[in-house]
Every structure is written in C-alpha cells, then in structure tokens.
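Researcher: Going back to the complex we discussed earlier. I've cleaned up the inputs and rechecked each line, so this should be the final set. Can you rerun the prediction on the complete assembly and write out the structure?
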Amino acid sequence: MMDRSAVGKQGAEFELDVERGKIHEFARAIRADDPAYFRREHQPSPPTFLTTMFFWEELVPGGNPWHLVAMSQERGMHAEQEYIFHGPPPVAGTRLRCRSRIESIYEKAGKRGGTLTFAVMVTEFRDDSGRLVAEARMTGVETERAPEEGK
Amino acid sequence: MRWQDLSEGATGPAPLVVGPITRTDFVRYQGASGDMNPIHHDEPFARAAGYQAPLAVGMFQAGVLSSWATGWLGAENVRRYKVRWKEQCWPGDVLTFSGRVARRYEENGEKKVDLDLVCTRQNGGVAVQGWATFVVPA
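Model: Rerun complete. Updated structure for the full complex:
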C-alpha cells in the first residue's frame, strides 16, 4: 500500500555532477553509438542519464522523497518515465542542483481486475545560475498481486 | 540530418536488434544507473516475488530505445523523451528498437520533430512505447 500522506512532500536539495566517465559507462550500457558520447570534451549526457541521480540523492539525508511513497519492491514497478530538456541535455562538467517532490498518488482499475495505484515524482535540475535545465517525471505503479506473465 | 529528409512518417535508420538479452546486460545497466533493485539480478529474490527469472530493467530497454533515436538525430538535439512500459522483458528476449517521425514543425524559430518510438519483443509484443522531441539544427 502506498502512503498517500507522501503527496506534496519535497526532498532536500542535492547536487549531481555530470561526469565524463559516467556518461561513457552509461552510454555503453544502453548500446549508444553517437560518437558525441565518447569524445574528449563537452560530451552530452544520454536522454535517460539523469536517472543516475540515484547515486547523488543518497548522499543527502532526505534527498529522495520517493521512499515516503512506500511502494512495494515486489509488486511495484516503473510505469512511465519522462525527461524534459530546456535546451541541449547537460554536458560533462555541469553541476546540477536537484530537488524532487511527490506530485500525486492515484488509483485506476486494472485490466485484469484489481486496483493499480500510481505515484508520480517530479525532479527539477538547475544549473549554478538557477536556470531550469531539465525535469524528470517518474511514475511508479503498484499492483495488488504480481503480474501473471513469467510465473 | 537534413530537415527535408524528415517528412512525417520517415522511419530513419534500420531498426536496432539487441539480444538475446542477458542478466549481464541488466547488471551492467544497474551498475551504470545506480538502481540496484535485486529483482533484476538476484534469482532467489525474483522467484520469491513470483517470477520465473530476474526481469529486465525497464530503464535498460528505455535507454536502448533512446540510443536508437539519438543515433539518428543527435544526442545534443533531444528536448523531450518519454517512455511507457507495456510488457515485461526477460533474459533470452530479442528486442527490436525503431521509430518514425510523427510530426514535423517549427516552434519559436526552431525546427523540430516528434518521434513515435517502440521496443518490441521477439513475439511481436510491445515492451516499451516511447515519444521524443528533437530539434533539427539548420
């Protein structure tokens, strides 16, 4: 059961350094072949790279308010993910200031019966000048039981 | 990439075929991303949760789908990327990544295209739907 009292809660601000080595590692893991990812200067980060905020938010107590949603690890999964860039994606060497908030929790009837509960977390990424560089929207879903396929 | 080649419906480069995907692919992605949920690599944990095997990391498929798109239109040109997971993937799956131009337009003096993207499994099932917006440099 997700905890609806998480809605509106905001995490503490944390920093994310966009690093060349991490871009290289990440690009290889997602089979990216744009040579821009592997050049020596001004490497752009891949479209889903900001998911590496996992590494950074844990450095700041309270950085990740997603824990407050209390989604089941066995019956919970990622439903949707969106990244919006207000200009080119951040390049290696950029320091981002990041803040997440729980935007909403809502229910829908599942196609095969049971209730699906969704939670949305929004993270804003700003550069040193305070300019909004990117936004991430993560939607998690929790089923009442594990999906049938694969059992 | 030339604007005149990006008519609505244009399908871009050949689809990317990846697989059979392996637990190593998941572990490599998890190490890179920092998402260490054991359901994607810990066999006893996955079985206890009711699965036959560790399930693929959804963000791995989402990432590869984005790679197909940035390989076409350029990593620096993406302005929006969204995915919705439809079907789970498993070790041994062979995945195909492709897309097409859904809309071609100019906005605030920039030339842009919206893409519809898809990752399908070997049985034809849609694993991931994606949507992207790219600017097209003059």
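Model: Worth noting: The first strand of chain B starts at residue 16 and ends at 18.
Researcher: Good, that matches what I expected from the previous run.
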